[in-house]
Amino acid sequence: MTGIAWELLIGLGIFLYGMSRLEAGLRDISNVSLKRWLMQFTSTPVSSASFGVAITTLLQSSSMVSLLVLAFASAGIIPLYNGIGVLLGANVGTTATGWLVATIGFKLDLEGMAIPLFGLGCLSQILLTRASRAHAFGKLVLGLGLLLYGLSLMKTSVSGLPASWDVSLLHGHPALVYLLVGILVTAIIQSSSATMMLTLTALHAQLIGLPEAAALVIGADIGTTSTTVLGSLTGSAIKKRLALAHLVFNLTVDIAAFVLLLPLLPQLLAMLTITDPLYSLVAFHSSFNLLGLLCFLPFLKPFSRWISRWFTEAEQQRSVIENMPTDVPEAALSAMKSQVRMLWLYALANNLKHFRLTSAQVLPEGVSETALHGAVQDADGSWKDRYELIKDREDELLRFALRLQQQPLGEDQAQLMTGLLEMTRALVYTSKTLKDIHKNLSRLRDSSNPAAAELFRLQRQFHRDFYTQLLSLMLEQHGLDYLREETDALLQTNDRHHHAMDARVYASAAPADQRELVDDNDTQLSTQLNVNREIHHANKSLLKSLTIWFGLQPLQPGLANAPQLSGQLR
């Protein structure tokens, strides 16, 4: 009896490891295509659910699909309700594992199939280049071989159990007990597919009957939600909402299946004309999940709106980047890009305060605040508070980049991340430069010296037009060639303005015999020239950030237009 338990445990361990290798191989082979499909084919609730069914059926890796959904939803690439649709569809697609194993696993010589696959997979991992596609395919073959071999061990281990153990001890327990066992086992091993394999193995060995097996797989469906729930405990609000949607859907569907369909199981199988117990179990599993999806699908948007009411904390953008996973670099870079774009708007809002300008005064003509989802609003709080916020954002982005560097990045991805960090540094520099001369600007504005006050007025007037042009380049749709040409033109405009302001300072300097009559340090040439110089450098740095931003767009065309986040200049 102990030997049987050990063999069953060893078989389960090999099966689970084989599944992880299979998923890793699929991830290496299809990650880029899968991410592209995920962004393209989730535009509606129906298409997102269909995509979830199809891709999970094809890849047999609901955990991989769920990981990408959480990552892209957290990055704002797909809406909440579409992410929910993919998760619900994946719930149906993963039932194909049972059909595959029932057809192949118990009808063919598993060990005869597993050993060649296992050998070929091992050779590929040793002989082939790690970064090659063939190496990834070999990893998939190795995983499939391990999976089949582990299933073979489980099947063999329990085949002799009825002869050595009184199987009747299992009978007589209510279906609720089997439901709870299914929940517990799946929550422990974190794999509903593995629970299905164990259940099919026990059913094949006649250790349990079909009704008990059906109760177990219903419990496995509930238990599999523990993975997403645990993964969302320290995540962002949208991850918690997706986990809640997964839990509510599974609980609703599985409780309905347990209460309504399980008692009618013989009649349902008679209608489907299925007599084989293995096929009966997988058909029941697929049927109640499919029925649940079809019932939920018409109400997916209202359901998503209800889900969105939960975890509605006043979540700062800090938590978005801090809790963003980095194991899907495309989604992580999209989130980072969105945050840097928002940082640019923060920096510009801070600059407005130094010149006593409001966002309404610099908003480009034809661009409404409503259309921008609140991206351009008057900044609340003092410029000091906003400068500290900008510094905090820089620290968060640097920490995020360090985490992201631990992932295998392509050349374009590494270049994009480096560019975003360079842009971040440029934005912090422009903010710090104006911070350092804020007192001088205030004194110029309030100076009793007409020339000093006029200097501030001219700087304010120039920056009203200057920032309007910058916002137009950042917020409106333009071609990349136009954007680069306009940025170069603004650099020249900034240089000419700097020279003009310096010339004005020299021209309006008070005669030496009158300087002692004016008790105002800001009439000094050095102070005014220093203000002009620092403003010139701040503007150059802000323009440099735009140049970097426009240069990064071709590196990630699928994510070039990062989603806007509301309230960016609040």
Please describe the topology of this protein.
Blueprint: H1 2-40, H2 45-59, H3 62-74, H4 80-93, H5 96-105, H6 110-127, H7 133-159, H8 161-164, H9 175-189, H10 192-204, H11 210-223, H12 225-232, H13 237-261, H14 265-272, H15 277-296, H16 300-308, H17 317-322, H18 329-354, H19 359-362, H20 383-404, H21 411-436, H22 438-446, H23 450-475, H24 480-507, H25 525-552
Helix pairs in contact: 1-2, 1-3, 1-7, 2-4, 3-4, 3-13, 3-18, 4-13, 4-15, 4-16, 5-10, 5-15, 6-7, 7-10, 9-11, 10-11, 11-13, 11-15, 12-13, 13-15, 13-16, 18-20, 18-21, 20-21, 21-25, 22-23, 23-24, 24-25
- For the residues shown, what is the average pLDDT? 77
Termini, distance in Å?
68 Å
Largest sheet: none
Portion of residues in helices? over 70%
Total helical segments: 25
Strand content: under 5%
The number of distinct β-strands equals 0
Radius of gyration: 32 Å
**How many domains, as an integer?**
2
Low-confidence stretches: 313-319, 370-380, 512-522, 557-570
Judging from the principal axes of the Cα atoms, what is the shape?
elongated
Helix-strand sequence:
HHHHHHHHHHHHHHHHHHHHHHHHH
Pairing-aware structural class of the strands and helices? mainly alpha
